[in-house]
Amino acid sequence: MEHFTLPCCPSCGKEMKKGFIQSGTRLAWVPKVTRLTVEPSFNQDAVLLSKQSRLSINYVDAYLCESCQKVLVDYGQQGD
Ligand SMILES: [Zn+2]
Fold first, then answer.
1. 76 C-alpha to center of ligand 1: Å?
2. Distance between CA atoms of residues 49 and 67, nearest Å
3. How many domains does the chain have?
4. Measured between alpha carbons, how far is residue 42 from residues 14, 30, 73 in Å?
5. Interval 30-77: pLDDT, tens
6. pLDDT tens-place string over residues 3-31
7. Ligand 1 centroid vs 18 CA: distance in angstroms?
């Protein structure tokens, strides 16, 4: 097993807390906000972030800095 280091907050440099962002719908980064009725993957500029569990929960790995109130999303990794 590879040793896993938690990322540091880009603002304060402290170690971030590992967790997830979960949603009932697919999560995407978008360059601008559109109506929620539009499926994110239909927007060609959208970057789909979430994976889907067997229970139809959409989630993505995310790291939290409570002091700066920032969340860092890691969307490149597939599977558990
Ligand atoms: Zn911070």
1. 22
2. 24
3. 1
4. 37, 11, 21
5. 888 876 655 655 677 888 899 888 888 999 999 999 999 999 999 986
6. 678 899 999 999 999 999 999 888 889 88
7. 13
- Written as six digits, the tokens of 60 are 């993505």
Beta bridge partners of 64: 17, 71
Whose tokens are 């569990």? That residue is: 53
73 C-alpha vs ligand 1 centroid, how far in Å?
A: 14
Distance 71 CA to ligand 1 centre (A): 9
Domain range enclosing 46: 1-32+39-80
Q: Ligand 1 centre and the CA of 57: distance in Å?
A: 28
Distance in angstroms (rounded) separating the CA atoms of residues 33 and 52: 22
Task: Report pTM.
Answer: 0.76
